[in-house]
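Discussion board: Methods & Data

I've been asked by a reviewer to show the raw model output for two of the constructs in my manuscript, not just the figures. I'm not sure how much to include, so I'm pasting the format here to get opinions. Each protein appears as its amino acid sequence followed by a line of discrete structure tokens. Is this the kind of thing reviewers expect to see in a supplement, or should I convert it first? Here is construct A:
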Amino acid sequence: MLIGNSRWHWARLEGTELITWHSPPESAPVTRLQGWAAVGKVPIEVKLPEERRLRLADVPLLEAPPWLGIDRALAGWQAWRQRGGPVLVADAGTVLSLTRVDGEGRFVGGRLIAGLALQLRAMAAGTAVLPTLLPDRPARWGDQANSGSWPRETGAAMEEGVGRGLAAAVVAAALELMQQDPELELVITGGDGECLLPLIVEGLAGRGRSPRLWPALCLEAMVALGPLLRPDRDR
């Protein structure tokens, strides 16, 4: 289980298949937990076994600084591990994080941008007339029902502007790094990754390698590191 800023992320192995799902924190029963990590706040009332907590030091991402979020370390390490080469991971969650890992598996650096929902909330809170958009109203770029890139309705215009801005930031970063290293692969993950993907593909069309959508990236990394989660290990 990975505790995020907005949701809790779960995985269960059934044979060789990884089953994943997500839940709001208040509705998440914690039973038979094999391992967990936290980016977001851990509720006081939830009792989690400390001996099964995965920490940054447990992730074998080279040259990871002590302030790096464990979600970024997990995502960067797993993408590099499976790719076997340089990667840029765009994790489109509460915050859009861009994490760069070189061909040797070293953390190189990154960028952080307020994510889709966070930007939309800030726009509503910081202005007198912009609406508060409901969390169950995500943009779906590439969907036939979408109102186009220049919508007339205010809420749709907010979503379009923020979504295209986030996608443009990912595209610009990927093109910058692909010029330096043509072997670099762009990996997209996070809750908003799927809905941003069409805009990112559009921005990269004919100019770089196609991005890879990898929704369960962090959870797959935790499963791979599962043998570290022994009750008797030293801390």
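Construct B, same format:
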Amino acid sequence: MELSLQPFVGVIVSVALFLLAYRKTIGARKERIHAANTDLEKTLLKRIVLESYQPTVTEVRRFIEGKAQDYRVRTRDLLSELQILTVLFARVLETDLITSRQREAILGKLFPLLQKAEDSPLEKARVVEHAEERKPLHRRTIVTLVPIALLASVTGTLLVLASAIMTGAPVGLLKTGLLVFTASTLAILLVLLVLRIREAQEESGSTLSLKAGITFEEEVVWVLQKGGARLKLGEPRPIGGDFMAEIRGKQLLIAVKPWIGGVPISLVRAAVDQLREGLKEESADLGILVVMESLPLPLESLEDAQVRVMTIRQLRNYLAYKLT
């Protein structure tokens, strides 16, 4: 082997050993989590579509716990009840393998479950638990990877030194060894940084999105209080919404939905219909469905004098200038 190529070969060997060890440890666990989530989704979808099975939130939770044991992962690592039901809702909505009547019937069964899962205090507690554990988990991951990275760098360095000795070029071994070890360590750190960025992007589509939903609800509460509303929070929740608000002699029924991206109009219509039912049960004057971003849907057919759909900015302006 040419002496000038030995350092590059050593770096390549070090990085390859690190990636292999990563795949056998942390990577293997992530593959099990992905496989368990896929199994959850496919199994529930088949039972719902082919057998007209209507699961409860409790049954979905138990199924998640069972799959966690099957795949040797923690329950908190898998999709939550709300996430599983949301995925199922999307799959039923997009599939062409069932009739429109079947689709409408299945979605009608799934929507109440979604509502119950969204309102579940367990879901919020799980998000808080994830947020509290994420940093210690990352620290444990780093502690695991540091000796692996050092061992890979040392192995690549020893390979280069052994090759230099065997080819009869022992001059400058110390300098060559330090060069290979440093370059290998830096290359592994770069690879680790790329892997961490990918993981962060995956997290933003799961736990972080749930946490953002809870933060959004807190922001809606703050806007209402800033606008002079007196809120009725806590349990039991009002029918059709998340909480009641009283402002300027009017009773408002508020429903908060942190929807992002394409939302089917059937889902919005169902939420609006629930608000209308809640207005009667709670003797409220106005129902407001607060969403995270403007919905590209024909909302005129859903809204009326009693029910409005608006973003948090529109809610702020409505409380300040339009509500009398």
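Answer (T.O., handling editor elsewhere):
This is acceptable in a supplement if you add a one-line summary per construct. For B, something like: Residues 1-204 form one domain.
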